[in-house]
TrEMBL record:
It comes from Chitinasiproducens palmae. Pfam families: FAD_binding_3, Rng_hyd_C. Keywords: FAD, Flavoprotein. Its cofactor is FAD. This is 2-polyprenyl-6-methoxyphenol hydroxylase. GO terms for molecular function: FAD binding; oxidoreductase activity, acting on paired donors, with incorporation or reduction of molecular oxygen, NAD(P)H as one donor, and incorporation of one atom of oxygen. Transmembrane segments: none annotated. It comes from the Bacteria. PANTHER family: BINDING MONOOXYGENASE, PUTATIVE (JCVI)-RELATED, TRK SYSTEM POTASSIUM UPTAKE PROTEIN. Residues 10-364 form the FAD-binding domain.
Length: 519
């Protein structure tokens, strides 16, 4: 325990989905005591398995998992559960003659048109720039790591009230009461933490109801496999039984009543225009394109992350990656606040950096919905976009957006690396950054070497690690400061001047060890 010996935990997280579990891992890595409260009584859920639970991890997410030593475990868990081979069968986009790079509003773009020549080199530990995974496997790996780090996960515990003061948060979960220094809502789009706290949730109302269903068809040949935009909406068919479809009804059918076979059959007929007959409805869920964002991510000692902070349609599959990015950004900052060595404004920088990222994703989602509308204008625009995506510049632009490669936090730094994820710059020794980031600390890379930098790093002992290295790809580099989340905080190709580096260290890592601190 850090701030108050009477608290039950340093941080309470509501929600044991991927975002809440990854945040718990990040905090526990920094020796922060964490309690995760999850409404569901068990981690097992059909919607987390194939086919509905299939998700895509972006380059940014893969780098984060790799640098925390989680990617190898994730790949191994997929192999052990036979998910790797099943993913290929479940993903309709894998069954194409050209290798897909993603889609926008259902319009596919392909890797053979993407120019990766100016992209940062991928980290050597990544199997690819993207990876398909099921929520079931991802959550199991994250939960296992969290519990190994000492995180307590309580399932069947619903947050139904809390009271926050300037020093702590009292949380009610049924008959149980807990006290912590901080509360983080990672409890999804209908977040109890957000609603109880009165966080304004602003955005746009839904235009459609989306359906994900498993069915038995009387005749499987009446529907063509793949994704199809029609005059009534869109449907995707992965034989023999999986369909995702969208009907522009203003979201009228979302969560209104139990989904009946007859209703699904009627909707599928309208959208596909085919004489479809369902003999059985195995499983079904609905969703919409509602796009909303919390006006603020923090109220005192209560914060929001993931879908609790922002929701949008699952089109393009960016929601999971957006939430994991929230957790990666927030974890080390909140841990510093718990320890008492956070620089002024460090926790608030979470919202400052992540809010614009989510706003861009919501705009991206709304643009896709506009292109999918069943009208002549949208149809014409889709044709223009399809032509654009077949060009090298067009495909590259869309690939950069969906992969996370184009992410850069706003910064006043002049060096092009500042604000971006630390790329593979051909370090020798090769693990100079990644092995140290496994510990969740910052890294000061000295390309001189310059022993003054080593002495400077020692002033932040326990928070920043020093490493001397050489760069094969960026030989002009003289110094790099990398945050615990892998973001470059300072970089210079010029002769080393200590004052700017010390300023960056103070900004991100607080007052040096042994010097007077202010809370």
């Amino acid at each position: 325990m850090h701030e108050n010996s009477f608290l039950s935990h340093d941080v309470i997280i509501a929600g044991a989905g991927p975002v809440g579990l990854f945040l718990a891992c990040e905090l526990a890595l920094q020796r922060v005591s964490v309690l995760v409260l999850e409404q569901a009584k068990t981690a097992d859920a059909p919607l987390k398995r194939l086919p509905f639970g299939l998700r895509g991890l972006s380059t940014a997410s893969l780098e984060a998992l790799y640098r925390r030593g989680l990617l190898e475990a994730l790949v191994a868990a997929q192999r052990a559960s036979n998910v790797s081979s099943d993913v290929t069968q479940a993903a309709h986009w894998q069954h194409q003659s050209r290798r897909p790079a993603g889609h926008f509003a259902g319009i596919q773009f392909f890797r053979d048109r993407v120019d990766e020549s100016h992209w940062p080199a991928p980290l050597p530990g990544l199997p690819d720039r993207t990876m398909a995974v099921t929520l079931e496997v991802l959550e199991a790996v994250l939960a296992g790591r969290a519990e190994a780090l000492g995180v307590e996960i309580r399932r069947g515990a619903t947050v139904d009230g809390y009271l926050a003061s300037n020093h702590e948060v009292g949380v009610c979960a049924g008959p149980e009461r807990f006290r912590a220094a901080w509360l983080v809502g990672c409890d999804g789009g209908r977040s109890a933490v957000r609603k109880i706290g009165g966080f304004r949730f602003e955005g746009t109302a839904p235009e459609f109801t989306g359906y994900s269903v498993e069915i038995d068809l009387a005749d499987g040949n009446v529907l063509a496999a793949g994704r199809h935009l029609t005059s009534a909406g869109m449907y995707t068919f992965t034989p023999p039984s999986t369909i995702a479809m969208v009907e522009f009804d203003g979201g009228a059918s979302h969560r209104k009543a139990p989904i009946a076979r007859e209703h699904v059959e009627a909707v599928l007929r309208r959208i596909s225009g085919a004489d479809v007959r369902l003999t059985r409805l195995q499983r079904a869920t609905t969703w919409t394109d509602r796009a909303c964002q919390a006006a603020v991510y923090r109220k005192g000692r209560v914060l929001l992350a993931g879908d609790a902070a922002h929701v949008h349609s699952p089109l393009g599959g960016q929601g999971l990656n957006l939430g994991l990015g929230d957790a990666l950004n927030l974890g080390w900052k909140l841990a510093a606040a718990v320890r008492g060595d956070a620089a002024a404004g460090l926790v608030d920088s979470y919202e400052a950096e992540r809010y614009p990222v989510a706003a861009r994703v919501l705009a991206w989602s709304r643009a896709q919905v506009a292109l999918m509308r069943p009208d002549a204008g949208a149809h014409a625009l889709r044709g223009v976009l399809q032509d654009l995506m077949e060009t090298r510049d067009g495909a590259t632009y869309f690939a950069e957006r969906v992969s996370g490669i184009s992410l850069r936090y706003e910064t006043d730094g002049l060096h092009p690396l500042i604000g971006k994820t630390m790329p593979d710059v051909g370090l020798a020794p090769s693990g100079a950054v990644d092995e140290r980031l496994n510990e969740g600390k910052g890294v000061l890379l000295d390309f001189g070497p310059d022993r003054r930098l080593e002495a400077l790093a020692r002033r932040w002992t326990g928070r920043v690690l020093y490493a001397a290295a050489k760069s094969a790809r960026c030989p002009a580099l003289r110094v790099l400061l990398v945050r615990p989340d892998g973001i470059v905080a300072f970089a210079s190709d010029d002769a080393v001047a200590l004052d700017p580096i010390a300023d960056a260290l103070s900004r991100w890592f607080g007052t040096p060890e042994g010097e007077a601190r202010g809370r």
